[in-house]
Amino acid sequence: MLSQIDIHKFNTLIEINTLINSNYQDVHALLTHILESATRLCDGDASSIMLLDKEANALYFEVALGSKRIEIKRFTLKPGEGIAGWVVQHNKPVIVNDVVNDERHFRSIPQQIDYSSKTMMAVPMRVKDECIGVIELINKKHDRYFVQEDLEWLEIFANQAALAIVNAQSIEKAQSEIQILRAQLQTDKGYHTLIAKSRIVLEKLEIIERIAQTDSSVLILGESGVGKELFAEQIHLRSKRSDHPLIRVNCAALPEGLLESELFGHVKGAFTGAVSDRQGRFEASEGGTIFLDEIGDISPALQAKLLRVIQQKTFEKVGSDVSVTVNVRILAATNKDIETLVAQGKFRSDLYYRLNVLPLYIPPLRQRPEDIPELGMFFLKRCMQETNKHFDGFSSEAMEAMLSYSWPGNVREMENCVERACVIGKNKWIGEEDLFLNKRVIPGFDKEGSRNLKTAVTLFKTHFIKKVLEEHRWNQTEAAKSLDIQRTYLSKLIKELVIINPKEE
């Protein structure tokens, strides 16, 4: 055991433990702090924390310090490979003061980065006695040897690093469960969770924030499946009418006769089967908002009646000549080219201008690929909860397939695709084969003479991940949250794609 407690070392341990127990959010920064402290207090020249990726059965560099820290992070080791790999495989600490002549020494990496390893000390990071990684220190300064006391201190730091990872995993799990509960609460109230990470959608939400403060009509345009109803919900929820109902009507789902009664209600005897008075959707929306989906499908007669509601806030029930006054905000949506319908005389121009006071165009999913990883994980988590199955996420091949696919059915198609994959998937990760996506890729990715698809997707991933890292000031924990992936998986991607923080160059 440690013969004498060094006050400086002891204070360092207290400082790190305080950070860990305060649920410190940036686990990468915390691990870096732990490694810096271990390296300084044990007089190491270089050091690293390597974590075990069970799926790949490989060790990758999570944190590296020293003159070759950037180059070293490009490499991986298999358990049993090199001294660090031996430590992970046997779950035992080791001091090697003659690295060159040790049979466990893996010479490939030092040779490739022009670095000479003379002495080394490595200890396992354990969670419930299971090795999840290793901390290694290389070359004690002033050509000295590492001693048993150094090893004992390093084991303490390894325990702290393991505790930091456990806490980070617990926080991540709790945040994931909170997200699911919030989504469930919204669902119970009839609302959906809107997933938005792309700049183009975030800009739409900024516009919605301003639109919501008025009572003007809004016309929401976009392809089928882009989530027009979800954006209508956001307008309502952010408005002063949010305490009142949001009533939704799919105008394409009912024939003209039934739709008129559905919208405006009817009186007893208005038609066969009208055995009593019935309130319409406009009356049910009093004080709130009515959302008219597929507005481009309504008949000219209904268009005229709807125009009157917008202009005068009055209407008559079917079979009645008594005017009913309502205080309702109208949101409408269509996936049709409504300007062409107006030009063809199939949609009233005066109604179009009344509805189009505040137009809002929702871009298709293929124009906002940054949302794809976030949406994919959201749908997967929800489906896992419903099916009582568990997946660690999407394989890199599956994610590449989703990023390169054109999604003609947009978010609705993606939701169905992920749910199907969750039901039929049998492995730890959702694979490309589980998605059943055809080869319809985003235009521009497969042009003749341009880079191949895999290269194009890799390039996109590199730029996208780097952009998210820059937005979060290279904080990997926050960036991983933004991407909705494990922070360890983000670190793996950073290494694989050779994404380098400019400050480390």
Structural commentary:
The chain is of the alpha/beta class and 505 residues long. It has three domains: 164 residues, GAF domain (Beta-Lactamase, 2-Layer Sandwich); 167 residues, 3-Layer(aba) Sandwich (Rossmann fold), CATH 3.40.50.300; 136 residues, Helicase, Ruva Protein, domain 3. Helices cover 46% and strands 15% of the residues. It is built from 20 helices and 15 strands. The strands form four sheets. It has a six-stranded antiparallel sheet with strand order 3-2-1-6-5-4, with helices on both faces. A hairpin with a 4-residue loop joins strand 1 and strand 2. Helix 19 crosses helix 20. 36% of the residues are buried. About 2% of the residues have low confidence.
Mean pLDDT: 82
Helix/strand/pairing category: alpha/beta
Biggest beta-sheet profile:
6 strands, antiparallel
Helix content: 40-55%
Give me the Rg, rounded.
Answer: 30 Å
CATH class category label of the largest domain:
Alpha Beta
What low-confidence regions span 5 or more consecutive residues with pLDDT below 50? 443-452
Q: Could you name the CATH topology of the largest domain? A: Rossmann fold
